[in-house]
Structures are given as structure tokens and as C-alpha cells.
Design brief:
This protein has about 130 residues and is mainly β. The chain has 1 helix and 8 strands. The protein has one domain. It is globular and about 45 Å long.
Length: about 130
């Protein structure tokens, strides 16, 4: 789901068997959800282990957060460029579907300090002199 102003994207992944019933014990239930990043995006894992700060080329900041799950940053490959494969990173969330059949996450735009100052000034009432 995308917020009306476009500053937040919420997602949810559900892990169920093909017929919708509980996952049988004899079936492996390990999962890895991967978010591959463009090579121009710089990613840093945040200290609580549930999130990643993303810095885009224009210094725009976004945060990724997984509610109950720990996230990892791993190497990946970008194959969409005309200059051939390039190294990049991916956000990875691993788990077991029987223990955690629902994975909730979001990306949220984080205003930069300069934009926050401008927004704060614009929000201040102007008094006549």
C-alpha cells in the first residue's frame, strides 16, 4: 500500500501452503525475502537490526523497516544496465513460515535536515510588522 503523499510504502508477505491450510511438518518452511537495490543506493543497517537506512544519489533518505524480523544486508548483482553486471546490495529477511507466517515491512521517506528546516519555517505563522 502506498500512502496518499507517496512518502511511505507498506507491504506484507504471507506464507501458506498451496491449498491454504497450515504448512505440513514434512515440508521445509525456510524463506528469504529479498529487496534488491540499485547500485547507486547506499544502504546501512540500523542498530536495532530491524531496519536499513537508504541514501539515494541526490542525498534523499529512505528507511526500510521490518516490524518483528531482523534484516541483513548482502551482496547482490545488478543486471539491468547497458554496461553489464554491477555489484550492489540487497536487503534480506530470513525466517521459518510455521513460526512466522506473516512478514510486515515498510519503506518510508525521511526528510533531510535542510528540508525539515524549510518545512518548519513554512509552518510558522507570519506576523505583520
Amino acid at each position: 500500500m502506498v500512502s496518499a503523499d507517496g512518502t511511505r510504502v507498506d507491504g506484507e508477505d504471507l506464507f501458506v501452503s498451496t491449498r491454504g491450510e497450515t504448512i505440513p511438518q514434512k515440508i521445509a518452511d525456510e524463506f528469504a525475502v529479498r529487496f534488491h537495490l540499485h547500485p547507486a543506493v547506499r544502504a546501512t543497517r540500523v542498530t536495532d537490526g530491524h531496519g536499513v537506512m537508504l541514501v539515494l544519489p541526490g542525498r534523499e533518505l529512505w528507511n526500510f523497516h521490518a516490524y518483528e524480523d531482523l534484516v541483513e544486508l548482502e551482496e547482490s548483482a545488478f543486471l539491468g544496465g547497458s554496461d553489464g553486471p554491477r555489484r550492489t546490495q540487497q536487503i534480506v529477511i530470513r525466517g521459518n513460515a510455521r513460526q512466522a507466517p506473516r512478514l510486515r515491512w515498510y519503506f518510508e521517506h525521511a526528510p533531510t535536515a535542510a528540508k525539515a528546516r524549510v518545512s518548519a519555517r513554512q509552518a510558522e505563522p507570519e506576523l505583520p510588522l
